[in-house]
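Cross-check.
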Amino acid sequence: MSPTYKSARQRELIKVICKSVLLVLSVGVGAVGLGCSVRSVATSGPSRIFREVHGLSVRSYQMLPVTDDLSIYRRVEIRPLENLMLDQIPELTVKQLNDEIINRTRSLNRFEHITQVDQATNPTTKRVLNQSGAGDFNAGSAPELIVEGYIDDYTPGIPALRYIEQGNNHAVLTVRITLRDKLTARILGEKNITVENTRVTSNVERMVNKAADEVAEFVGKTKRYKTLTEARY
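Predicted model, tokenized:
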């Protein structure tokens, strides 16, 4: 066998090996890509299903973290939220939000005495269910917590765009809540709460109720906060 013939055979063999290696690599890359796609669908599926069924997500940020022990406050005065959105949010929605903040704060059974201030700033006293120690308090000496704040953002969204998952179409409600000591006027904590409804059939009432839940949870908190930012879905 001549050297020329052997050299030609070797070149042909190298070409065959190179093609085989490329084929194996192509199959491997395809398999990895398919695996990533399947894994992506598998991991994003539950989250997407949850959003479509429940449709509510909450983002909150503590503008001023609570550092005091709020358990000493057994009296609370809840004031209506100032509406910075004016006529962009229906009056009924504003009323529902203020009413639900009162109702959900009462349901905590954490305060012995709750004072609700109406829009005309005429105080109406309401007591929670558990008043076992209410008689021990003196209105002039007992620490009292003031809850106030404002509606910072509201949009009902665009339902038609939610069908095609376009941005800027979700229903959003943002409130900022301030906790203050009534006697000293010292601010004890401040929190920004945003509730977003991502459902195609947006339910503003559910969004408002969720925002009221978050406000009541903040008001009823007795422990100091350690984290600034919190997001829940």
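Residues 3-53 form the longest helix (51 residues). Strands lie at 56-64, 75-78, 82-83, 113-117, 123-126, 144-155, 171-181, 187-197, 229-232. Passed to J.P. for a second look.
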